[in-house]
Amino acid sequence: MSVLQTLFDAELHIGGATILWREIIGNGFGIASAIGGMKRVVWAWPVGIIGNALLFTVFMGALFHTPQDLNLYGQAGRQLLFIMVSAYGWTRWAASRHDSGKAVLPHWASTRQRVAMIATMAVGTVVFAKVFEMLGSWGPWPDAWIFTGSILATFGMARGWTEFWLIWIGVDVVGVPLLFSGGYYPSAILYLVYAGFVLWGFAVWLRIQRRTVAQPETTDAAPRQE
Questions:
Q1: What's the CA gap between 77 and 160, in Å, rounded?
Q2: How many CA atoms does the CB half-sphere of 202 hold within 13 Å?
Q3: How far is the CA of 73 from the CAs of 111, 122, 147, 170, 225, in angstroms?
Q4: Rounded to an integer, what distance in angstroms lies between the CA atom of residue 165 and that of residue 34?
Q5: Terminus-to-terminus CA distance in the chain, angstroms?
Q6: Which of 54, 77, 84, 165 counts the highest number of beta carbons within 10 A?
Q7: Is the CB of residue 83 less than 8 Å from the CB of residue 26?
């Protein structure tokens, strides 16, 4: 049996609940990526991509025969979009670091960009909820909210927008009860841990942003992400 197959099949049993090791490991990569994002280091993106690939197989439960046997299309789909947006962020941060020595400089999104984000969040949630509903997703509306918010937050991080941390709070508020009710305990616990980490990350980026305004730096790296 290959190492990958062993990882794919590995399970942890706690109090009658069956948890996949790849869900735990995938979320571990997610935490590492978030820490890298807070520190504005380029390796945050490839680390996140590995976690996304693992979690995709977890949330397509009926397809990959996980203990939950549930398809959360929003959760699974966002892993694929995370990979695509992360490729963009990886390229952008690497180029910015090469040009200016900084992966990204945190700053607020413009009023126009904020309006666009709010509109995208509202429309995206409605549209994707209908799509997930037709596909037979479990919990289509919260799934759609999490899906749309996660993509916006990831894009905001790539762009350097400080607000992206706040979008993650909105995602966590809905994500925790959804994942607990679906039996995805490691992911639900990650969301709880991540909520505290997000507030910390927001404070760090805000401090860097204020310091940058006080001591302007020349750079082409731009805006915000997710």
A1: 24
A2: 16
A3: 32, 18, 9, 19, 23
A4: 10
A5: 39
A6: 165
A7: no
Q: Which two structure tokens, joined as six digits, stand for 1?
A: 């049996």
Measured CA to CA, the distance from residue 83 to residue 94 in angstroms comes to 16
* pLDDT tens for each residue of 92-110: 898 887 666 667 889 999 9
Query: CA-to-CA distance for 130 and 183, rounded, in angstroms?
Result: 23
C-alpha distances in angstroms, 94 versus 99, 102, 145? 9, 9, 30
pLDDT at 115: 97
Q: Residue 13 carries which side chain, given as an amino acid letter?
A: H
**pLDDT tens for each residue of 73-84:** 777 888 998 899
**20-69, pLDDT tens digit by residue?**
888 889 989 988 998 998 888 999 999 999 999 999 988 887 666 666 66
Domain ranges of the chain: 3-214
Q: What is the DSSP string of 35-83?
A: HHHHHT-TTHHHHHHHHHHHHHHHHBHHHHT-TT--B-HHHHHHHHHHH
- Supply 20's token pair: 């996949």
Q: What is the DSSP letter of 101?
A: S
pLDDT number for residue 226: 37
